[in-house]
């Protein structure tokens, strides 16, 4: 059972930056990938970005390409989401998730961290 703890959310003005962190509880994360999702109240959860843990291959939603960067620190069992050029529409609760193996769903979730972008 992997536990994920996010940090780094907050309030920022449009055009600003934030970095989210997601620490996995395992001594050595053994899953396939980690990802970031976000949800605005009343809307469906939205995929933001994901990274394959072993090789570092990344994937992004079109809405964040060129502005957000996902990275991982293998030794520290931590994934990061660097968010630049933030827009008010990026305001959401951001969740970190882990995928145990390729082809499986993201089964492990963090508690979420709030990101608010003011105009």
Summarize the structure.
The protein is an all-beta fold and 119 residues long. It is built from no helices and eleven strands.
Walk me through what this model shows.
The protein is mostly beta strands and 119 residues long. It contains no helices and eleven strands. Strands 2, 4, 5, 6, 9, 10 and 11 form a seven-stranded mixed β-sheet that branches. A four-stranded antiparallel β-sheet has the order 1-3-8-7, with no helix packed on it. A hairpin with a 4-residue loop joins β7 and β8 (78-83). The protein is globular, with a radius of gyration of 13 Å. The N and C termini lie far apart (40 Å).
List keywords for this structure.
about 50% strand; mainly beta; about 120 residues; 11 strands
């Amino acid at each position: 059972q992997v536990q994920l703890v996010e940090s780094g959310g907050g309030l920022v003005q449009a055009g600003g930056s934030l970095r989210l962190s997601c620490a996995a509880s395992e001594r050595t994360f053994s899953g396939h990938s980690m990802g970031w999702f976000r949800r605005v109240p009343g809307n469906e959860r939205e995929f933001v970005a994901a990274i394959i843990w072993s090789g570092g291959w990344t994937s992004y939603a079109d809405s964040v390409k060129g502005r957000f960067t996902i990275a991982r620190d293998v030794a520290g069992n931590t994934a990061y989401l660097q968010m630049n050029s933030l827009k008010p529409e990026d305001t959401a609760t951001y969740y970190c998730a882990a995928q145990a193996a390729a082809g499986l769903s993201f089964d492990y979730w963090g508690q979420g961290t709030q990101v608010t972008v003011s105009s």
